[in-house]
Protein backbone atom coordinates (compact mmCIF):
# COMPACT_ATOMS: atom_id res chain seq x y z
CA UNK A 1 0.00 0.00 0.00
CA UNK A 2 1.58 3.37 -0.98
CA UNK A 3 2.16 6.00 1.67
CA UNK A 4 -0.25 8.92 1.50
CA UNK A 5 1.50 12.21 0.71
CA UNK A 6 1.02 14.76 3.53
CA UNK A 7 -0.23 18.25 2.65
CA UNK A 8 2.36 20.56 4.23
CA UNK A 9 0.58 23.80 3.30
CA UNK A 10 -2.92 23.77 1.82
CA UNK A 11 -3.53 27.52 1.43
CA UNK A 12 -5.17 28.59 -1.83
CA UNK A 13 -4.74 31.69 -3.99
CA UNK A 14 -7.78 33.38 -2.42
CA UNK A 15 -6.55 32.69 1.11
CA UNK A 16 -3.10 34.10 0.33
CA UNK A 17 -4.61 37.19 -1.35
CA UNK A 18 -6.98 37.90 1.54
CA UNK A 19 -4.19 37.46 4.10
CA UNK A 20 -1.94 39.97 2.30
CA UNK A 21 -4.78 42.49 1.97
CA UNK A 22 -5.49 42.24 5.71
CA UNK A 23 -1.86 43.15 6.42
CA UNK A 24 -2.06 46.44 4.49
CA UNK A 25 -3.48 48.53 7.40
CA UNK A 26 -0.73 47.23 9.70
CA UNK A 27 2.21 48.36 7.55
CA UNK A 28 0.70 51.19 5.39
CA UNK A 29 -2.39 52.77 7.05
CA UNK A 30 -2.49 55.49 4.38
CA UNK A 31 -3.24 52.84 1.74
CA UNK A 32 -7.03 52.83 1.78
CA UNK A 33 -8.00 51.66 -1.72
CA UNK A 34 -8.14 47.84 -1.59
CA UNK A 35 -10.21 47.33 -4.74
CA UNK A 36 -8.97 45.04 -7.55
CA UNK A 37 -8.43 48.10 -9.77
CA UNK A 38 -5.67 49.40 -7.49
CA UNK A 39 -2.16 48.65 -8.90
CA UNK A 40 -0.90 47.58 -5.49
CA UNK A 41 -3.69 45.00 -5.15
CA UNK A 42 -2.78 43.75 -8.63
CA UNK A 43 0.78 43.10 -7.43
CA UNK A 44 -0.58 41.35 -4.32
CA UNK A 45 -2.70 39.04 -6.49
CA UNK A 46 0.35 38.32 -8.67
CA UNK A 47 2.44 37.30 -5.67
CA UNK A 48 -0.49 35.24 -4.30
CA UNK A 49 -0.65 33.38 -7.63
CA UNK A 50 3.10 32.69 -7.57
CA UNK A 51 2.89 31.63 -3.93
CA UNK A 52 0.14 29.12 -4.67
CA UNK A 53 2.34 27.55 -7.37
CA UNK A 54 5.26 27.30 -4.96
CA UNK A 55 3.06 25.64 -2.33
CA UNK A 56 1.84 23.10 -4.89
CA UNK A 57 5.41 22.09 -5.71
CA UNK A 58 6.32 22.18 -2.02
CA UNK A 59 3.63 19.55 -1.32
CA UNK A 60 4.94 17.22 -4.04
CA UNK A 61 7.59 15.16 -2.19
CA UNK A 62 9.87 13.46 -4.75
CA UNK A 63 10.20 9.69 -4.52
CA UNK A 64 13.89 9.92 -3.74
CA UNK A 65 13.16 12.28 -0.85
CA UNK A 66 10.43 9.99 0.43
CA UNK A 67 12.75 6.97 0.30
CA UNK A 68 15.43 8.93 2.14
CA UNK A 69 12.95 9.90 4.88
CA UNK A 70 11.97 6.24 5.26
CA UNK A 71 15.62 5.24 5.45
CA UNK A 72 16.26 7.79 8.21
CA UNK A 73 13.27 6.39 10.09
CA UNK A 74 14.68 2.86 9.53
CA UNK A 75 11.51 1.76 7.74
CA UNK A 76 12.59 -0.78 5.11
CA UNK A 77 11.02 -1.27 1.73
CA UNK A 78 8.71 -4.20 1.16
CA UNK A 79 10.81 -7.39 0.81
CA UNK A 80 11.40 -8.72 -2.67
CA UNK A 81 8.99 -11.45 -3.72
CA UNK A 82 10.18 -14.12 -6.10
CA UNK A 83 8.01 -14.80 -9.13
CA UNK A 84 6.52 -18.30 -9.37
CA UNK A 85 5.47 -20.45 -12.28
CA UNK A 86 4.36 -23.94 -13.26
CA UNK A 87 6.55 -25.79 -15.78
CA UNK A 88 6.27 -29.18 -17.46
CA UNK A 89 9.02 -31.48 -18.75
CA UNK A 90 9.09 -34.10 -21.50
CA UNK A 91 11.29 -37.05 -22.43
CA UNK A 92 11.45 -39.94 -24.89
CA UNK A 93 13.16 -42.31 -22.43
CA UNK A 94 10.75 -45.18 -21.55
CA UNK A 95 12.18 -45.47 -18.03
CA UNK A 96 11.88 -41.74 -17.43
CA UNK A 97 14.33 -39.09 -16.24
CA UNK A 98 14.65 -37.74 -12.70
CA UNK A 99 14.67 -33.96 -12.22
CA UNK A 100 15.91 -33.40 -8.64
CA UNK A 101 14.69 -30.76 -6.24
CA UNK A 102 16.33 -27.31 -6.64
CA UNK A 103 17.23 -28.00 -10.28
CA UNK A 104 18.27 -24.86 -12.14
CA UNK A 105 16.14 -23.41 -14.95
CA UNK A 106 16.41 -20.14 -16.83
CA UNK A 107 13.92 -17.87 -18.55
CA UNK A 108 16.20 -15.70 -20.60
CA UNK A 109 18.72 -14.51 -18.02
CA UNK A 110 16.44 -15.01 -15.01
CA UNK A 111 17.38 -18.05 -12.87
CA UNK A 112 14.67 -20.33 -11.49
CA UNK A 113 14.78 -23.35 -9.18
CA UNK A 114 12.34 -26.26 -8.97
CA UNK A 115 10.44 -26.72 -5.71
CA UNK A 116 9.25 -30.23 -6.54
CA UNK A 117 11.09 -33.40 -7.51
CA UNK A 118 9.87 -34.77 -10.85
CA UNK A 119 10.16 -38.19 -12.42
CA UNK A 120 9.71 -37.17 -16.05
CA UNK A 121 7.83 -39.88 -17.95
CA UNK A 122 7.19 -40.19 -21.72
CA UNK A 123 3.53 -39.31 -21.28
CA UNK A 124 1.18 -36.36 -21.66
CA UNK A 125 -2.25 -35.56 -20.23
CA UNK A 126 -5.51 -34.46 -21.78
CA UNK A 127 -8.05 -33.03 -19.36
CA UNK A 128 -11.74 -33.30 -20.30
CA UNK A 129 -14.97 -31.97 -18.82
CA UNK A 130 -18.33 -33.59 -19.62
CA UNK A 131 -20.11 -30.28 -20.05
CA UNK A 132 -23.90 -30.39 -19.98
CA UNK A 133 -25.74 -29.26 -23.10
CA UNK A 134 -29.31 -29.22 -24.31
CA UNK A 135 -30.81 -32.46 -25.56
CA UNK A 136 -30.16 -32.85 -29.31
CA UNK A 137 -32.92 -31.87 -31.68
CA UNK A 138 -33.94 -34.46 -34.28
CA UNK A 139 -34.30 -31.85 -37.06
CA UNK A 140 -31.39 -29.50 -36.26
CA UNK A 141 -28.86 -32.23 -35.29
CA UNK A 142 -30.01 -35.49 -36.89
CA UNK A 143 -26.65 -37.31 -36.51
CA UNK A 144 -26.18 -36.29 -32.87
CA UNK A 145 -29.82 -37.17 -32.14
CA UNK A 146 -29.38 -40.60 -33.74
CA UNK A 147 -26.24 -41.36 -31.69
CA UNK A 148 -28.01 -40.15 -28.53
CA UNK A 149 -30.90 -42.55 -29.17
CA UNK A 150 -28.52 -45.44 -29.87
CA UNK A 151 -26.78 -44.78 -26.54
CA UNK A 152 -30.11 -44.87 -24.71
CA UNK A 153 -31.00 -48.14 -26.44
CA UNK A 154 -27.59 -49.62 -25.53
CA UNK A 155 -28.28 -48.78 -21.89
CA UNK A 156 -31.60 -50.68 -22.14
CA UNK A 157 -33.45 -47.46 -21.48
CA UNK A 158 -33.77 -45.50 -18.25
CA UNK A 159 -35.74 -46.05 -15.10
CA UNK A 160 -38.80 -43.94 -14.39
CA UNK A 161 -36.89 -41.82 -11.87
CA UNK A 162 -34.05 -41.11 -14.31
CA UNK A 163 -33.86 -38.36 -16.91
CA UNK A 164 -31.51 -38.37 -19.93
CA UNK A 165 -28.73 -35.79 -19.93
CA UNK A 166 -26.64 -34.82 -22.94
CA UNK A 167 -23.09 -33.51 -22.75
CA UNK A 168 -20.23 -32.39 -24.94
CA UNK A 169 -16.51 -32.62 -24.31
CA UNK A 170 -14.67 -29.50 -23.16
CA UNK A 171 -10.98 -30.30 -23.63
CA UNK A 172 -8.46 -28.42 -21.51
CA UNK A 173 -5.74 -26.43 -23.18
CA UNK A 174 -2.29 -27.95 -23.66
CA UNK A 175 -0.54 -24.85 -25.04
CA UNK A 176 -2.84 -22.05 -23.88
CA UNK A 177 -4.80 -22.04 -27.13
CA UNK A 178 -8.21 -22.93 -25.64
CA UNK A 179 -10.48 -21.07 -23.21
CA UNK A 180 -10.92 -22.47 -19.68
CA UNK A 181 -13.34 -25.36 -19.18
CA UNK A 182 -16.24 -24.64 -16.83
CA UNK A 183 -16.62 -27.61 -14.47
CA UNK A 184 -19.65 -26.00 -12.87
CA UNK A 185 -21.50 -27.41 -15.90
CA UNK A 186 -20.01 -30.91 -15.62
CA UNK A 187 -22.80 -33.52 -15.68
CA UNK A 188 -20.89 -35.75 -13.25
CA UNK A 189 -18.76 -33.19 -11.37
CA UNK A 190 -15.58 -35.01 -12.42
CA UNK A 191 -12.28 -33.98 -13.93
CA UNK A 192 -11.37 -36.65 -16.49
CA UNK A 193 -7.70 -36.94 -17.47
CA UNK A 194 -6.52 -39.17 -20.31
CA UNK A 195 -2.94 -40.38 -19.78
CA UNK A 196 -1.42 -40.53 -23.26
CA UNK A 197 1.71 -42.16 -24.60
CA UNK A 198 3.94 -39.87 -26.59
CA UNK A 199 3.56 -40.31 -30.37
CA UNK A 200 6.87 -42.23 -30.64
CA UNK A 201 5.95 -44.66 -27.82
CA UNK A 202 4.09 -47.96 -28.09
CA UNK A 203 1.10 -47.63 -25.71
CA UNK A 204 1.01 -51.32 -24.75
CA UNK A 205 4.75 -51.54 -24.01
CA UNK A 206 4.74 -48.23 -22.16
CA UNK A 207 1.79 -49.30 -19.99
CA UNK A 208 3.68 -52.45 -19.01
CA UNK A 209 6.80 -50.37 -18.28
CA UNK A 210 4.91 -47.97 -16.02
CA UNK A 211 2.95 -50.61 -14.13
CA UNK A 212 5.65 -53.26 -13.74
CA UNK A 213 6.29 -54.73 -10.29
CA UNK A 214 8.69 -52.58 -8.31
CA UNK A 215 9.21 -51.83 -4.64
CA UNK A 216 9.50 -48.08 -5.21
CA UNK A 217 6.24 -46.21 -5.93
CA UNK A 218 5.93 -44.45 -9.28
CA UNK A 219 4.55 -40.93 -9.04
CA UNK A 220 2.94 -38.83 -11.76
CA UNK A 221 3.25 -35.08 -11.20
CA UNK A 222 -0.02 -33.55 -12.40
CA UNK A 223 0.14 -29.78 -12.81
CA UNK A 224 -3.14 -27.96 -12.20
CA UNK A 225 -3.91 -24.37 -13.17
CA UNK A 226 -7.33 -22.82 -12.54
CA UNK A 227 -8.53 -19.73 -14.33
CA UNK A 228 -6.65 -16.68 -13.10
CA UNK A 229 -9.70 -14.62 -12.19
CA UNK A 230 -10.30 -12.33 -9.23
CA UNK A 231 -13.64 -13.15 -7.51
CA UNK A 232 -16.02 -10.39 -6.55
CA UNK A 233 -16.84 -9.61 -2.93
CA UNK A 234 -20.16 -11.46 -3.05
CA UNK A 235 -18.52 -14.79 -3.99
CA UNK A 236 -15.79 -14.64 -1.33
CA UNK A 237 -16.50 -16.22 2.06
CA UNK A 238 -16.32 -14.01 5.11
CA UNK A 239 -13.17 -14.11 7.22
CA UNK A 240 -13.55 -16.99 9.72
CA UNK A 241 -11.68 -15.05 12.40
CA UNK A 242 -8.47 -15.72 14.32
CA UNK A 243 -7.59 -19.32 15.08
CA UNK A 244 -9.57 -20.77 12.17
CA UNK A 245 -7.68 -22.82 9.60
CA UNK A 246 -8.38 -22.82 5.89
CA UNK A 247 -10.18 -25.96 4.79
CA UNK A 248 -10.73 -27.51 1.40
CA UNK A 249 -12.87 -30.38 0.22
CA UNK A 250 -11.21 -33.77 -0.11
CA UNK A 251 -10.53 -34.83 -3.67
CA UNK A 252 -10.65 -38.50 -4.61
CA UNK A 253 -8.40 -39.69 -7.43
CA UNK A 254 -9.17 -42.92 -9.27
CA UNK A 255 -7.70 -44.86 -12.18
CA UNK A 256 -9.53 -46.91 -14.80
CA UNK A 257 -8.86 -50.63 -14.37
CA UNK A 258 -10.29 -51.81 -17.68
CA UNK A 259 -12.51 -54.30 -15.82
CA UNK A 260 -16.27 -54.44 -15.22
CA UNK A 261 -18.30 -55.49 -12.20
CA UNK A 262 -21.02 -58.15 -12.28
CA UNK A 263 -23.62 -55.48 -13.10
CA UNK A 264 -21.48 -54.27 -16.05
CA UNK A 265 -20.43 -51.12 -14.18
CA UNK A 266 -16.84 -49.99 -14.89
CA UNK A 267 -14.42 -50.51 -12.01
CA UNK A 268 -12.11 -47.72 -10.84
CA UNK A 269 -9.31 -48.05 -8.29
CA UNK A 270 -8.73 -45.29 -5.72
CA UNK A 271 -5.16 -43.99 -5.76
CA UNK A 272 -2.79 -42.78 -3.06
CA UNK A 273 -1.76 -39.12 -3.16
CA UNK A 274 1.92 -38.52 -2.47
CA UNK A 275 1.60 -34.74 -2.21
CA UNK A 276 -0.74 -31.91 -3.11
CA UNK A 277 0.07 -28.19 -3.29
CA UNK A 278 -3.27 -27.33 -4.92
CA UNK A 279 -5.29 -27.61 -1.67
CA UNK A 280 -7.75 -30.00 -3.29
CA UNK A 281 -7.57 -28.53 -6.82
CA UNK A 282 -8.43 -25.11 -5.43
CA UNK A 283 -5.29 -23.25 -6.55
CA UNK A 284 -2.36 -23.59 -8.94
CA UNK A 285 0.06 -26.34 -7.96
CA UNK A 286 1.11 -29.95 -8.40
CA UNK A 287 -0.61 -33.18 -7.33
CA UNK A 288 1.69 -36.21 -7.00
CA UNK A 289 -0.33 -39.36 -7.77
CA UNK A 290 1.07 -42.78 -6.92
CA UNK A 291 0.38 -45.34 -9.65
CA UNK A 292 -0.46 -48.95 -8.78
CA UNK A 293 2.36 -51.33 -9.66
CA UNK A 294 0.12 -54.12 -10.95
CA UNK A 295 -0.60 -54.19 -14.66
CA UNK A 296 -4.16 -55.42 -14.11
CA UNK A 297 -4.93 -52.34 -12.00
CA UNK A 298 -4.92 -49.92 -14.94
CA UNK A 299 -6.19 -50.12 -18.49
CA UNK A 300 -8.85 -49.21 -20.99
CA UNK A 301 -12.43 -50.48 -21.03
CA UNK A 302 -13.10 -52.77 -24.01
CA UNK A 303 -16.77 -52.36 -24.94
CA UNK A 304 -18.80 -55.00 -26.75
CA UNK A 305 -21.25 -52.32 -27.86
CA UNK A 306 -19.57 -49.20 -29.29
CA UNK A 307 -22.73 -47.16 -28.66
CA UNK A 308 -22.01 -47.35 -24.89
CA UNK A 309 -18.80 -45.32 -25.26
CA UNK A 310 -18.83 -42.22 -23.10
CA UNK A 311 -22.13 -43.03 -21.38
CA UNK A 312 -22.72 -43.36 -17.65
CA UNK A 313 -19.49 -43.77 -15.66
CA UNK A 314 -17.42 -44.56 -18.74
CA UNK A 315 -14.71 -42.07 -19.79
CA UNK A 316 -15.47 -39.55 -22.53
CA UNK A 317 -14.61 -40.33 -26.13
CA UNK A 318 -11.75 -38.41 -27.77
CA UNK A 319 -10.84 -37.96 -31.42
CA UNK A 320 -9.59 -40.85 -33.58
CA UNK A 321 -5.99 -39.62 -33.44
CA UNK A 322 -5.86 -39.41 -29.63
CA UNK A 323 -7.86 -42.53 -28.64
CA UNK A 324 -5.17 -45.11 -29.65
CA UNK A 325 -2.57 -43.32 -27.49
CA UNK A 326 -4.56 -43.53 -24.24
CA UNK A 327 -2.85 -45.71 -21.62
CA UNK A 328 -5.57 -45.33 -18.99
CA UNK A 329 -7.88 -42.72 -17.51
CA UNK A 330 -7.61 -40.75 -14.27
CA UNK A 331 -10.59 -39.06 -12.76
CA UNK A 332 -10.95 -36.70 -9.80
CA UNK A 333 -14.00 -35.60 -7.84
CA UNK A 334 -14.81 -34.07 -4.48
CA UNK A 335 -16.52 -36.08 -1.78
CA UNK A 336 -18.92 -33.25 -0.96
CA UNK A 337 -19.93 -33.14 -4.67
CA UNK A 338 -18.76 -29.54 -5.06
CA UNK A 339 -17.28 -28.51 -8.41
CA UNK A 340 -13.82 -27.39 -9.49
CA UNK A 341 -14.90 -24.17 -11.17
CA UNK A 342 -13.14 -22.97 -14.31
CA UNK A 343 -9.89 -24.80 -15.11
CA UNK A 344 -7.27 -23.54 -17.56
CA UNK A 345 -4.67 -26.30 -17.75
CA UNK A 346 -3.76 -29.84 -16.65
CA UNK A 347 -0.34 -31.21 -17.58
CA UNK A 348 2.02 -34.12 -16.86
CA UNK A 349 5.56 -34.01 -15.45
CA UNK A 350 4.86 -30.67 -13.78
CA UNK A 351 6.90 -28.82 -11.18
CA UNK A 352 6.56 -25.52 -9.40
CA UNK A 353 9.49 -23.15 -9.79
CA UNK A 354 10.38 -19.86 -8.16
CA UNK A 355 12.64 -17.12 -9.41
CA UNK A 356 15.77 -17.12 -7.28
CA UNK A 357 19.17 -18.64 -6.85
CA UNK A 358 20.88 -20.09 -3.80
CA UNK A 359 23.96 -18.04 -2.88
CA UNK A 360 27.15 -19.63 -1.67
CA UNK A 361 28.31 -18.97 1.92
CA UNK A 362 30.21 -15.71 2.16
CA UNK A 363 32.42 -14.11 4.81
CA UNK A 364 31.11 -10.71 5.89
CA UNK A 365 34.04 -9.55 8.00
CA UNK A 366 35.32 -9.24 11.56
CA UNK A 367 33.59 -7.19 14.23
CA UNK A 368 35.42 -4.42 16.10
CA UNK A 369 33.38 -4.41 19.29
CA UNK A 370 31.59 -1.14 18.46
CA UNK A 371 27.85 -0.65 18.29
CA UNK A 372 25.81 -0.13 15.11
CA UNK A 373 28.01 -2.09 12.71
CA UNK A 374 26.79 -2.93 9.23
CA UNK A 375 27.91 -5.24 6.43
CA UNK A 376 26.88 -5.66 2.80
CA UNK A 377 26.07 -9.00 1.17
CA UNK A 378 27.43 -9.82 -2.26
CA UNK A 379 23.98 -10.75 -3.63
CA UNK A 380 20.89 -8.56 -3.31
CA UNK A 381 17.96 -8.39 -3.00
CA UNK A 382 17.46 -11.13 -0.40
CA UNK A 383 14.31 -13.23 -0.28
CA UNK A 384 12.41 -13.35 3.01
CA UNK A 385 13.37 -16.15 5.42
CA UNK A 386 16.24 -17.25 3.20
CA UNK A 387 19.27 -15.87 5.08
CA UNK A 388 21.14 -17.88 7.72
CA UNK A 389 23.64 -15.77 9.68
CA UNK A 390 26.23 -17.36 11.94
CA UNK A 391 28.77 -15.59 14.14
CA UNK A 392 31.94 -17.21 15.49
CA UNK A 393 32.20 -16.97 19.28
CA UNK A 394 34.54 -18.59 21.83
CA UNK A 395 31.88 -21.30 22.23
CA UNK A 396 31.72 -21.95 18.49
CA UNK A 397 29.50 -20.83 15.63
CA UNK A 398 26.23 -19.29 16.82
CA UNK A 399 23.14 -18.66 14.67
CA UNK A 400 21.68 -15.18 15.09
CA UNK A 401 18.03 -14.18 14.71
CA UNK A 402 16.60 -11.57 12.36
CA UNK A 403 14.34 -8.90 13.93
CA UNK A 404 12.43 -5.96 12.51
CA UNK A 405 14.18 -3.45 14.77
CA UNK A 406 16.77 -3.28 17.54
CA UNK A 407 14.83 -0.98 19.89
CA UNK A 408 13.77 -3.85 22.16
CA UNK A 409 17.10 -5.71 21.93
CA UNK A 410 19.67 -5.68 24.70
CA UNK A 411 23.44 -5.87 24.33
CA UNK A 412 23.37 -9.61 25.02
CA UNK A 413 20.74 -10.45 22.39
CA UNK A 414 21.95 -12.14 19.22
CA UNK A 415 19.82 -10.03 16.90
CA UNK A 416 20.40 -8.35 13.56
CA UNK A 417 18.37 -6.27 11.12
CA UNK A 418 18.41 -7.05 7.40
CA UNK A 419 17.63 -4.57 4.66
CA UNK A 420 16.56 -7.09 2.02
CA UNK A 421 16.48 -4.61 -0.83
CA UNK A 422 20.09 -3.45 -0.29
CA UNK A 423 21.39 -6.69 1.18
CA UNK A 424 22.70 -4.80 4.25
CA UNK A 425 23.01 -6.43 7.68
CA UNK A 426 23.12 -4.19 10.77
CA UNK A 427 24.03 -5.15 14.34
CA UNK A 428 23.05 -3.12 17.36
CA UNK A 429 25.45 -4.40 20.01
CA UNK A 430 29.22 -4.48 20.10
CA UNK A 431 29.84 -7.37 17.72
CA UNK A 432 33.12 -9.16 17.98
CA UNK A 433 34.31 -12.11 15.96
CA UNK A 434 33.65 -13.26 12.45
CA UNK A 435 30.29 -13.24 10.68
CA UNK A 436 29.89 -15.44 7.56
Structural overview:
By secondary structure, this protein is α+β, with helices and mostly antiparallel strands. It has helices at 13-22, 24-27, 39-59, 63-72, 142-154, 203-210, and strands spanning 84-88, 97-99, 104-107, 110-114, 118-120, 123-133, 166-171, 181-182, 191-197, 218-226, 251-260, 266-270, 272-276, 285-291, 326-334, 342-348, 350-355, 365-368, 373-376, 390-393, 396-399, 401-402, 415-419, 424-427, 432-435. Strand 3 (104-107) and strand 4 form a beta hairpin. Helix 1 (13-22) packs across helix 3. The protein starts with 12 loop residues before the first helix and ends with a strand. Residues 430-436 have low confidence and may be disordered.
Structural key phrases:
6-stranded antiparallel beta sheet, disordered C terminus, alpha+beta, 5-stranded antiparallel beta sheet, flat, 25 strands, single chain, 31% strand, 436 residues
Give a brief rundown of this model:
By secondary structure, the chain is α+β, with helices and mostly antiparallel strands. The protein is built from six helices and 25 strands.
Major beta sheet, strand line-up: 7-6-9-15-11-12
Question: Structural class, from secondary structure content?
Answer: alpha+beta
Give the fraction of residues assigned to helices: 10-25%
Strand content: 25-35%
Q: Radius of gyration, Cα only, in angstroms?
A: 34 Å
- The averaged pLDDT comes out at 83
Distance between the termini: 34 Å
How many helical stretches? 6
Shape: flat
Q: Which residues form runs of ≥5 with pLDDT under 50?
A: 430-436
Could you give the count of β-strands? 25
Largest sheet: 6 strands, antiparallel
Amino acid sequence: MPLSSPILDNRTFQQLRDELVRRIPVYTPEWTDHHPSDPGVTLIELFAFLGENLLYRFNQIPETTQLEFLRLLQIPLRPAQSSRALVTFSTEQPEGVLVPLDSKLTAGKLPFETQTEVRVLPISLRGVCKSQRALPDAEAEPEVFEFFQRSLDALDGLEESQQPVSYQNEVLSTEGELPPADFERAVDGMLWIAVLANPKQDPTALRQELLQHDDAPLLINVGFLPEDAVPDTESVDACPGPGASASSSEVVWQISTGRFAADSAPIYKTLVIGGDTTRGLAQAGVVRIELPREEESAGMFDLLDADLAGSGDLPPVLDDETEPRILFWLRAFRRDQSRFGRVQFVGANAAQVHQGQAARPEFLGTGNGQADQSYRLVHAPVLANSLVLQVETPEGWQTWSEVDGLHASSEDDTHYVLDRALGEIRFGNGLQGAAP
